[in-house]
Each structure stands twice: as structure tokens, then as C-alpha cells.
Amino acid sequence: MFRTAIAVSPHSSFVMNDRDALRQEARLRRAAAVAAQNDAAERLAAAFLSGIPFRAHRTASGYWPVGTEIDDRPILRGLMAEGLAVALPCVVKADQALAFRSWREADRLVPGPYGIPAPHDAAPVLRPTLVVVPLLLFDGTGHRLGSGMGFYDRTLAELRAQSSILAVGVGFAAQRIAELPVLPTDQRLDAVVTEEGVEWF
Q1: Beta-strand relationship, 59-61 and 144-145
Q2: Tell me: the pLDDT tens digits for 32-65?
Q3: Run of H or E residues at 31
Q4: Three-class HEC string of 120-133
Q5: Strand partners, 100
Q6: pTM of the model
Q7: What SS3 class is residue 192?
Q8: Which residues lie closer than 8 Å to 186 by C-beta, 6 or more apart?
Q9: 40-51 and 73-81 helices cross at what angle (nearest 10)?
Q10: CATH architecture of the domain covering 13-200
Q11: Is 165 in contact with 131 (CB distance < 8 Å)?
């Protein structure tokens, strides 16, 4: 079972150790959810497309699922079918925000710095206002726990400084926790969609 934690200083070794322990447990929980549900991606897409006001946006970003991450590609196909431009994230540098480059299903992807498939450098750079965000855990206040590299926190902060966006986390319902330890740099999500539905914050 996950422990309930409180927000403390980002310099506390307890917090970092606690978040690392949560990540290990979360990966096990996510793997179990993958093994138990063959139709989770389709249910996720149905919940997203019926519950998120995506038609207010022209450009959306998703991610290329790796490992046990829930597959968001059915969502992206649905958004493209509705006329939205879709982009995938590209790592620029380890300490910078992500860039988003245009993606269509026929496009050839190339391995990024961490081996994750990404659009080629020649693909146009887009600025999404609807951002589909992967996660390891999320809580009832919209906070998420990611892989620990900080890419999405930097990216969401940068996008929000430039315009209004809708940040939607996606994952399995089993990835919800009552409360996460929070750092000052953490960016909250506006909503999370799971195979069971939409939760707004």
C-alpha cells in the first residue's frame, strides 16, 4: 500500500527518498494494471474523447508509450480524426523543457536521447494548448509523480507562461493515490483520465 505523505522542503532527503520509493511501487502497480486489462487503451480513449473539451483546441500533444505506460495513441488518432494537429515530445537538453514536433501515423520516428521514439528534427515544431501527460501516480489534488527527470514540470511551466493550456494526465485508475509529496517545482494537472473516467481538479 502507498503511504500518505505531506509537502516539505525539496531539499529534504526524506522527500526524495519517499518519491523514489513511490516510483518503485508505482511501476509494480502499473505493470499489474497492464496485465489485468487488455482493453484499457480503448476505454481510456472513449473516456477522454467524451469527457475532455478538446474541440476548444487546435493543437494537442501526446507521448509515445514505452514499457507499461498506458497507450495514448487511440486518443491521438481520435483527435486527428477531429481535425486537431498532433505533436509528440522531443528532448532538447536534459535541463530544458520539451519541444513538440508534428506527428502523423505515417511519419517515421527516430530514437531520442533516452531511446524513446520521437519525430525527426525536420518535423515542424508545434505549440500545443492541449497536453496529454504520462504519469506514474496522481492524487486527488491534481499532482502527478513522473519519472523524476522534471521534463513535464518544466514544459508545463513554460507553456503556461505563454498561454492558457489544458494539461490532462492519463493513466490507469490503479495509479491514483490519496496524496503525493509535493515539491515547489511540481506543476498540477487540470484533469486526469483513466479507463474509468475523467477526474477534474
Answers
A1: unpaired
A2: 998 888 899 999 999 999 999 999 999 999 999 9
A3: helix 13-36
A4: CCCCCEECCCEEEE
A5: 89, 126
A6: 0.89
A7: strand
A8: 143, 144, 153
A9: 40
A10: 3-Layer(aba) Sandwich (3.40)
A11: yes
